[in-house]
Amino acid sequence: MKKNIRKITALLLTAALALSAFSVSPAQAAGKKKAVFDPNGKYHATLGIQTCTNLWLTHMGYYEKSQNSYYNTKNADNLMYTDKETNKDTAATGTLTNAEIAGNGTYTVKLEGLDSMNETDISQLHIATDIPLNDKVKFTDVKASINGREILSFDEGVPENEEPYLQGGMVILLLNHWRAELVKEVAAKGLSETAESGWKLLQGTGDENVEITFTVSGFDYDNPDAVAADETSASENQPSSSETENPSGNSSVPFYPIAAAVIILIVIFGVIIVRRK
Question: Per-residue confidence of the chain (277 residues) as pLDDT tens digits?
Fold first, then answer.
């Protein structure tokens, strides 16, 4: 009898170990969890721009590591170009002012004091955010101004719809030479492309300014001071939503499925013992 009990115990332990090996946590099964929009949370936005005359000054500002690495705008805090004499990536002169999106309200992102270094043509202009993709948040009354003159406005913001550029959060497009439908929509508003790859909108000299103002809705709270809630700390690093894993930090193996399986096995072997008696 004792010999049978030892065998049964060994079998139970083996079964439990096997179940543990095949059991995975929800985080492991699903991989990295996608960030979920928090209607009571706070998020961030920055101005994305690319020129296309000669130097291709670039600040995409995506809140995602791989995209900003590709464009050499790590941490979304630099306007970059490749110096043709040294062939090195170089930061251009200009101050970026980001926005902290804390509730429903109107916000502004800026690029001030830009030395455009003879760049007159813009191929891309957008708002990059770290707001997780969702159907609740809306961007309206989106307006872009360059050197104090309004160049373009949208009653409803045009969302980016290409996956590689959305890994860090929602992106709202204003100009993009590679989006044919947007080019048509912008032309219908009276702003047609006047350069090989975009729009001739800059003076090409120092001290230029680009500004985008927009209204956000979809949060569960309002921010009456949103216009004044800008943050000039463009170099402040915010965690990429695409790099955020399970916020609870619970990556342990689930206990209940294993416990239930072990209990069932104990009952089965218990019945066997009783019958053998």
Answer: 544 544 444 444 444 444 444 444 443 444 457 899 999 999 999 999 999 999 999 999 999 877 667 665 554 577 899 998 999 989 999 999 999 999 999 999 999 999 999 999 999 999 999 999 999 999 999 999 999 999 999 999 999 999 989 999 999 999 999 999 999 999 999 999 999 999 999 999 999 999 999 999 999 999 988 864 455 533 333 333 333 222 233 333 333 444 444 444 444 444 444 444 4
Q: Measured between alpha carbons, how far is residue 35 from residues 32, 55, 128 in Å?
A: 9, 35, 16
For 41-104, list the strands marked E by DSSP: 43-51, 58-59, 80-83, 88-91, 95-101
**H or E segment to which residue 176 belongs:** strand 171-176
DSSP state of 151: E
Residue 91 neighbours by CB distance under 10 Å: 14
